[in-house]
Amino acid sequence: MGGDDAGATVARWMGIRRAAVIELAVLFAAALCADRFLFQSDRFWNVSPHPFGMIVLLVSAQYGTAEGLLAAALATASLLAFNLPEPVLGADRYAVALDLARRPMWWFITAVVLGELTRRRARREDRLRSDLAGARRREEEARGACGEFRSSLDLLQRRMAGQPATVLNLCSAATRLERLDPDQALEGAMEVVAAVMRPRKFSLFLRKGNALDLVHQEGWEAGDRWSRSLPAASPLAVAMLERARPVCAAISGDEAVLGGEGVLACPLRDPATGHTLGMLKVEDLDFEGLHEIPSRTFELLSAWISTVYSQSRLHQSLLARLAEDPAAAAQASDLGVGSPRG
Question: Would you give the end-to-end CA distance of the chain in angstroms?
């Protein structure tokens, strides 16, 4: 007779374990057969302790109250069914009835007391099993948190180790960004974005009529399917050219605007006129780069790049006008229009 496995689904019949019913049937059948063929065929009437009572003890200790009561009922039926002693003349009927009920009464009392003790032990085991499962779950959560902390620590250490090189790269890129040639300014802009944001893949688009055309990209591979030109009707181009607002995949609704073209995008706007010059876009970036502070940093970078690029374009325009009409260019310079930086 084996106990129930922890956490297993126990088959029941009318609230009683099916295994207990089968075991009771086997045990009583074996006892009755032994009485019939090996003993006196009197249902062990004069045997003490009675074998039926041993079955009640065994089942009550193994399964609990309900199964123990069933065992006591079967033991009573097996003992008294068609096995009542011959009545004695002059005997006290109440004394006879009490004598017949003595054994079944003790069997039922044993089934209740021992069965309740078994149920109490089972409830305690269930509680301990639940506590153990909770402790294991907390251990797994603590192990996961420890792993995340270790990963964050490793990332922080790598970033700290790369800070000197980052500062040098940023200074070099900023120097190129301040050049007065628009193409060199855009190349410097890409280096600044790489040094500050550290994206794996990013690009820069310029406005060509009512569309946005790719002029610079970093990290793109042959299998990448990002658009090299965004027509004016595309949601991302509308957000950049008409609404002039940054979009981020972490913001509800912006993922549909991006349409799989990246995770961050910000318009490049002329600070003097508010006209959209182009777009700075990030296609692949670590998840922590989509938080509020990195996103705000990306917007500030875009504003800085917009200002420098506008100044470089204005400077180039003044040089062209100077070559054609020196007097008009000098007058524009005296009015403070587009005095070149650095």
Answer: 93
> If you write DSSP's letter for every residue of 270-288 in order, what string do you get?
-TTT--EEEEEEEEE--GG
User: pTM for the complete prediction?
Assistant: 0.46
Model pLDDT for residues 272-326, shown as the tens digit of each residue: 888 899 999 999 887 765 666 677 888 888 888 888 888 888 777 777 777 776 6
Q: What share of the chain is helix, strand, coil (3-state, %, to 5)?
A: 60, 10, 25
Q: What radius of gyration, in Å, describes the C-alpha atoms of the chain? A: 45
226: left (phi over 0), alpha (psi -120 to 50) or beta: beta
User: Contact, 206 vs 236, CB < 8 A?
Assistant: no
The label of the residue with tokens 């605007």 reads 257
At 322-337, the pLDDT tens digits run 777 666 555 555 544 4
| Average pLDDT estimate for 232-256 | 89
**Residues for the chain: how many in total?**
342
Please give the backbone phi and psi of residue 181, each rounded to the nearest 5 degrees, phi first.
Answer: -90, 125
User: What are the angstrom distances between the C-alpha of 126 and each of 2, 122, 133, 136, 137?
Assistant: 17, 6, 10, 15, 16
Residue 112: enclosing H or E segment and its boundaries? helix 93-177
Angle between helices 292-324 and 182-197 (to 10 degrees): 170
Q: Which two tokens stand for residue 242?
A: 């008409």
Q: What is the pLDDT of residue 51?
A: 93
Domain with CATH 3.30.450.40 in the chain: 178-219+228-334
Q: Class of the 178-219+228-334 domain?
A: alpha beta
**Helices (runs of H) and strands (runs of E) counted in the chain:** 9, 8
3-class SS of residue 217: strand
Q: What is the pLDDT confidence band of residue 164, given thresholds at 50, 70 and 90?
A: very low
Residue type, 96: V
Q: For residue 188, what pLDDT is reported?
A: 79
For 160, phi then psi, to 5°, come to -65, -40
